[in-house]
Amino acid sequence: MLLHAAIRSPSRKWCVVVVELAGESLASADRTSKRPTFAQLPPGHYALRFRVVRARLSTVFEKTFRLERGDVLLASCEPVQPNVFYRRSPRCDTWTMFVIKHPEPGPEGPRRIG
């Protein structure tokens, strides 16, 4: 699982984006995070909780995923933030997520890329 949070650093408001599994944090990002966060999960069904934590108002929702061997779950969040001169903030926390399926090898075996 790969988490990316688009938190603009000029914002002084405290905000943390978290992905949780069974009450434990798998990945998190705040305004000091410079790179996406990666968490390795074995194949299976997962009920993940997606949360944006703030001092005043936090948001949360759950979504279930079925991951197979080699799949990558990408989750990206753009939380509500103060507007800046070069960009307006979304009106609600905006999450984008999808699963990249690992390609099955053909009869000739695994393919090399690159």
What does this entry look like structurally?
- A hairpin with a 2-residue loop joins strand 2 and strand 3.
- By secondary structure, this protein is mainly β.
- The strands form 2 sheets. Strands 4-1-7-8 form a 4-stranded mixed sheet, with no helix packed on it. A 4-stranded antiparallel sheet has the order 3-2-5-6, with no helix packed on it.
- Helices cover 0% and strands 47% of the residues.
- The chain is elongated and about 55 Å long.
- The mean pLDDT is 80.
Biggest sheet descriptor:
4 strands, mixed
Mean pLDDT: 80
Structural class label: mainly beta
Give the percentage of residues in beta strands.
over 45%
Order of helices and strands: EEEEEEEE
Sequence stretches where pLDDT stays below 50 over 5 or more residues: none
Task: State the separation between the terminal residues, measured CA to CA.
Answer: 23 Å
The total of helices stands at: 0
Strand order of the largest sheet: 4-1-7-8
Helix content bin = under 10%
Radius of gyration: 17 Å
Shape: elongated
Oligomeric state of the chains present here:
single chain
- Total beta-strand segments: 8
Topology:
Blueprint: E1 2-5, E2 15-21, E3 24-30, E4 37-38, E5 44-54, E6 59-67, E7 72-78, E8 94-100
Parallel strand pairs: 1-7
Antiparallel strand pairs: 1-4, 2-3, 2-5, 5-6, 7-8
